[in-house]
Amino acid sequence: MKNGYYLSVYIHIGEIPSVVDSYHRHDQNISLWKKDGDLIELIHYWELERISGIKSHSRSLFSVIEAVEFINELLSMYNVTINDMEEVWGTPQLDNTKDYFSDELINSLPFHSIAHLFSSIFMDTKIFYDETIIGLAVDGGPDNILDNGHFRKKNHYAGCLVKEGSVKDIFPISSPGLIWSEAADYFGLREGTLMALASATESKLINFNYDLPNNIYSMGDRKVARDYLNELWRTIDKLNEHDIGISFNGFDKRFTEIENKISMAVKEIQNISIQIMEENINKIVSEYNIDTQNAYLALSGGYALNCPTNSYLMEKFKFKGFLAPPCINDSGISLGIALYVFYKRLSKKKIDFKLAHPFYGDKNLLSTDGLEVYSQYIKESSEFDLDVVLNDLETDPFIWFDGRAEIGPRALGNRSLFADPRNNKSKDELNRIKQRQWWRPVAPIILEEEISNWFENSYPSPFMLHTFKVNKDKEKYVPAILHLDKTARVQTIKSESNNQLIYRIIKGFYNKTGVPIICNTSLNDNGEPIINSFHEAMNFALRKNIRIVYFNGQRFELMNHEKYKNTQPLQ
Fold first, then answer.
1. For the chain, which terminal residue's Cβ has fewer other Cβ atoms within 10 angstroms, N or C?
2. What is the pLDDT of residue 308?
């Protein structure tokens, strides 16, 4: 395999799909790589939703010519074109090699699921070569672009076992992902909102039983998933006050009746999902005689965004460690495609690669011309001053836009809204800004060295993929980051991380207040992808009446918000 640039492209091209906007691939993404000997480097990661403004971008490009023009525009910052790539993978019309996904190990599994697997099991090659890893790719279902339509004959979901640098086996597993995607459609709420509502209320069913056939998980049978949801909802929808103590424990008075009922349904979905994941792991542990305390758990696929499940599995099986990229859903497919190909092409060598941080997206620089557009709205600007930042944090939520964007669906500090966790006003204001329900939680960023002092059974969670219960004696100090069940979806940050400014802010806040935590939520409106440019951030600030914006460390105090007439995200 030659040294040079490589391109992994998870997009879709087609004239008719582009015109009628039919669905083929969602969360489309592109990644640029460079090989130098045994060293593999991820240079840049583009998620198309950040460019198009279309949440979970699934729109097809019209033609190969259009796709090449678009990709070359992205690559121009590195003074290369698609023709300079040693190899291109992932999209048939653009691929310049065709043998990268032919492998006897994966004949019965879609390449989509294999890509998911490698995005996690191969994200740190030192662990891959030295440790035992159980890998599970658990999403809603694969795309069929590289499998030429044959994926319907295959098991949809892949698992694997890695021992000391060798993939010992790849095999079909079960995934709860399909039932969650069906539930999102059924209830008209995104999976994350359903998950938050499940943990928000105290209402739950008593002794609901339903035997789901295995093919709902292994072969993606949507009818079976829908039959289950119909039966679950028929049971719940007829509940009333007379059924309290018999069929359910009662309605939580803080919520509407429909919210209570959806919450009860999602609790059942969560319970059966955890059972499925346990069965996957138990089967692998038994068949291969694995000691989980000496093994890593590697998860990928959209269902792996389910933080309570991740934490439950880590606690129950006492895994040595956890592997998952920040782009854990389909936004990570180009990552997984590339890592699989590098593994396959270079399997006789020890490859050096580690996804040590999430900041591989775009970096925006601020020009004088760019600032001039907002001159009537900028009261003053100043350089970074920690004392001023801490004062801002204690006053109102502010925008933090710094360096390169994080990859994946969650804001991990570079495209964020920050706020003080010590009062519910912060949560209420952030939910108002983002047009979310009052009960939606706000995630915390915490100093990693303080995690065990604040959260039960906790461990590092750098990509916000785990939920922990707040220690009882700490609850009163951080009400803004508490789910209603007293848990929080946690992100940890280390002193030697790639985000020194945020570490300094949280450390300074800790020294000042005794709380080593700040509120962090993604910089976007309801239904909008995470904001990608300075202009989008300023538009957001002005129409949401946010006073302070930090851009690459520079502080801007805004004014005249009432004169700004745009009421929508920028196109």
1. C
2. 96
Six token digits for residue 174:
């079960």
167 pLDDT higher than 60: yes
Beta strand 487-493 with 466-469 is antiparallel
Rounded CA-CA distance 184/564 in Å is 35
Q: Is 571 exposed, middle or buried (0-12, 13-18, 19+ CB in 10 A)?
A: exposed
Residue 83 has pLDDT above 70, yes or no: yes
What ranges do the domains of the chain cover? 1-98, 368-563
Torsions phi, psi for 367 (to 5 deg): -100, 160
**Tokens 């999102």 appear where?**
184
The span from the CA of 527 to the CA of 257, in Å, is 25
DSSP labels, 154-168: S-S-EEEEEETTEEE
Quote the CA–CA distance of 158 and 125 in Å, as a whole number: 20
Report the CATH number of the 1-98 domain.
3.30.420
Query: Rounded to whole angstroms, how far apart are CA atoms 183 and 268?
Result: 12
Q: What pLDDT, on the 0 to 100 scale, is given for residue 58?
A: 96
The Cα–Cα gap between 205 and 272 comes to 13
Q: How confident is the model at residue 107 (pLDDT cuts 50, 70, 90)?
A: low
Instruction: Give CA–CA dist 475/562, Å, rounded.
Output: 38
For residue 327, the 8-state DSSP code is: S
Token couple for 365: 């620089």
Structural contact between residues 110 and 151, judged by C-beta atoms closer than 8 angstroms:
yes
Q: Are 89 and 7 in contact (CB under 8 A)?
A: yes
CB neighbour class for 311 (10 Å; exposed up to 12, middle 13-18, buried from 19)? buried
470, two tokens:
């707040």
Percentage, residues of the chain above pLDDT 70: 96
Nearest to 376 by CA among 240, 562, 197: 562
What type of residue sits at position 405?
Answer: A
3-state SS string over 395-447? HCCEEEECCECCCCCCCCCCEEEEECCCCHHHHHHHHHHCCCCCCCCCEEEEE
pLDDT band at 349 (very low <50, low <70, confident <90, very high): confident
Q: Grade residue 156 by pLDDT with cuts at 50, 70 and 90.
A: confident
| Count of CB atoms situated within 10 Å of the CB of 8 | 29
547 CB contacts (<8 Å, ≥6 apart)? 396, 398, 557, 558
Question: What CATH class is the domain 368-563?
Answer: alpha beta
